Amino acid sequence: YISISINNDAKWTNSRDVYLGLYSFAASQCRYSNDEVTWSGWEPYSTRRVWTLTQGEETKYVYYECKKTNGDTEGPASASIIFSSIPPDPPTDLSITINDGDDYTTSKRVHLRLRAENANECRYQQDDYGWTTWEDYTTSRDLTLQGGDGLKTIYYQCQNDYGKSGTHDTIHLDAGPPGPVYDLSARVGYNSVYLRWSRPSGDVSGFYIYRSTHSLGLFSMIGSTTSTTYTDSQVMPGEGYSYYVIVRSNSGQESRQSNVVSADIPGPLTDGDAPAN
User: Fold this and answer.
1) What CA–CA distance (Å, rounded) separates 72 from 69?
2) Which of 3, 4, 203, 208 could be 246's S-S partner, Cβ–Cβ 3.0 to 4.6 Å?
3) Could you tell me which of 77, 66, 13, 58 has the C-alpha nearest to residue 40?
4) Whole-model pTM over 0.70
5) Residues 157 and 195 occupy one common structural domain
6) What's the number of domains the chain is made of?
7) Whole-angstrom Cα distance, residue 41 to residue 75?
8) What are the residues whose beta carbons fall under 8 Å from the beta carbon of 105, sequence distance 6 or more?
9) CB 242 within 8 A of CB 219
10) Residue 34 belongs to domain spanning
11) Does residue 164 lie in a domain region?
């Protein structure tokens, strides 16, 4: 029986000097080879030896042959180990961050911050638009988003000689301002004006309410809401008011103003308006 192991059967090494674990029953002399062609000289039998692997990053083999005390030769036995300057695994610790972690972008051109351990080359894909070609690993890159507004997913994949790994990140594209409100309406209540409108489609985070008085004529913002109704209770009897609404998107863009509506608040009762007894 004859056996050999390299570095206690480790999978890989980044050192060319390795330790051989050796056994051959009743052996007196042994020799070693990296290619089973060129051998070392015969040496006294030992159960452990330092050996130097050949150049190159690949799987390395060591061959072991012994002579017994009775003159018989046993072997060769062999063992293998991967020599690599990096772990023989696919890239690890991949990360991709779009626009420094922003949730929204108004530009189709975005910046990617990238990281991967032991990556030789990487590629990128947005949604189903297809992969780029493989490129040398880098820690940053710009990319142009495809398609219209909405949620975008960018996939990041890296590879080395031992396989591929991947991850992804997302961002909302909000390239244009939101659509305006077209159907703002006003109803007068008791010392209040009730406004109502329909929610536009697309990316909407809220609404700004603007008002002017008929006596002054200048519009100013009086409030905001995330719903499609608003009650203005800061009105004066006998005054007239006009209103419009501005839509705001999650990225901070604003629509053009809505249609303008007006409401007249009844004035206080006078003696002539009092009901007769």
Assistant:
1) 7
2) 208
3) 66
4) no
5) no
6) 3
7) 15
8) 98, 99, 145, 171, 172, 173, 174, 251
9) yes
10) 2-83
11) yes
